[in-house]
User: What shape does this take?
Amino acid sequence: MSDDKISSNPAIDAAMRLDGDPQNLRDYYDDWARNYNLDITSAEYSGPAISARLLRQYLDDSDASLLDAGCGTGLVGIELQALGYRRVDGFDLSESMIEQAGASGVYRKLAGSIDMMQAARSYAADSYDAVLSVGVFTLGHVPPEAMEVLLQLTRPGGLLLISTRTHYYQQTDFQPLVDKLLAEARIELVKLLRDAPYNKDGDAHYWLFRRTG
Assistant: This one.
């Protein structure tokens, strides 16, 4: 992989060079939806499986209400179902990605055209026992502040699981935001998998928080 590439897969590399504008993201993923799973599989994407197993270590209630935020084609939902979770909802910005997720048959409810930064307009506060966002906190997608939106949707005492690509973590203010939320006693850090496998081009950090306030 040359130094100027973020990923050896051209589609993934282009995705991480987006500008975070919701319309541009929507258009890109609408176009990519049909080939997304093939590209991600070829990149040896392990994020969904690692995230689902991490959640299962701390939430063993199969009837827990879960939200897959930025669910894409449903890869996280598939892993959650395999571990016995039966009440999984999902949303994504791209309607075409949601169509793919719907075909998986693993979600209770799905919603498209939802900008994560505006998700509180579509979901009631304190709604879910756990919220997961895997593969979204990456370059060109959402700012760290999206974590605060997802925290609103998590019930007090519930869990929030976020993956951050290592380059995203290094180039954004994600850690200062985490420090702020910890200092305000709004969250506690349950588990951090640092520099854990993500895909063949790099690692990620997997953060599991509990909402405390």
User: Anything to note?
Assistant: Helices lie at 10-15, 22-42, 47-58, 75-82, 95-104, 146-153, 166-171, 174-183. Residues 68 and 90 are 5 Å apart (CA to CA). The chain has a mean pLDDT of 95.
